[in-house]
Amino acid sequence: MGRLHGDGGEAGGHDGLRRHLTGRTGGHRLRFGSGAAGIERLEASLIGEGFAPHRHDTYAIGVTLAGVQTFRYRGELRHCLPGDWHVLHPDEVHDGMPGTDEGFGYRILYVDPFLVQQALGGRPLPFVADPVVRRRDVRPPLSACLRRIDEPLDDLERLDVALLVADLLERHSAPRPGGRAGLALEELSRVRELITEDPVTRRSVEELERISGLDRWTLARQFRAAFGTSPTRFRTMRQLDRVRRLLRGGTPPREAALEAGFADQSHMTRMFKRAYGMTPGAWTAALTGP
């Protein structure tokens, strides 16, 4: 596998991305690499149009490979040049657009906060207020994880990635008042597992209180501290995970929406765009590769 050049690109590794950025007038290109439980790796390029404001329930940690990436985050317009990284916290609204007519390309790592939580040993999730991180501040093994997105991650490598991500977040986060307070992780994890296994079923707050043994206020507060989002939004994102799998397998959007538990295709489309910054149709059209 080639090394990173000074322009942020990998030697011989981004020919497809460069071809997309050359001689095109507009559009998206998305290519998923190999992932693991709690980890997705993606290569993307945008020309002309950008992503609408949206928010993930994962950490999004990416590196700009070509062009200039701009995005609004926490009320400010940010810029990433080739070689710059960005670190976005779960549930923080952001967009994404080319800073020039040439467009931009990047690779990104989406990491489940639960995996980060395990690497942190039960501490509340760190928050990185300044999302732009310079290349020199990212450890080489984490850079290699995005250089080699098509190489499978085994169980040990998955743990290594989680530890590297947790280290990056803690090194660039500001201390929070009460940030060392303990969380009821065993109880919270029961709720998380129930929703993950069956996101189609809507659970009442009384049922979640009974399952966790926590009162509703403690459950809501600690679930967000532990996993970066609310139980309700966590369920919606698991529904959308199911929609994405179905769409990639060729299921029509209407059927995918109903199978994932949405009221109808229109409801699913609204939630999809809020989560990924594009409609299901645009997302599916932008996919390349296996």
List keywords for this structure.
disordered N terminus; alpha+beta; Jelly Rolls; 290 residues; Arc Repressor Mutant, subunit A; 4-stranded antiparallel sheet; DNA-binding; 2 domains
The CATH topology of the largest domain turns out to be Jelly Rolls
Task: Return the CATH architecture of the largest domain.
Answer: Sandwich
Please give the order of strands in the largest beta sheet. 1-2-9-4-7-10
The CATH superfamily of the largest domain is Jelly Rolls
Average pLDDT score: 89
Pfam families: AraC_binding, HTH_18
Keywords: DNA-binding, Transcription, Transcription regulation
GO molecular function: DNA-binding transcription factor activity; sequence-specific DNA binding
InterPro entries: AraC-bd, AraC_XylS_family_regulators, Homeodomain-like_sf, HTH-like, HTH_AraC
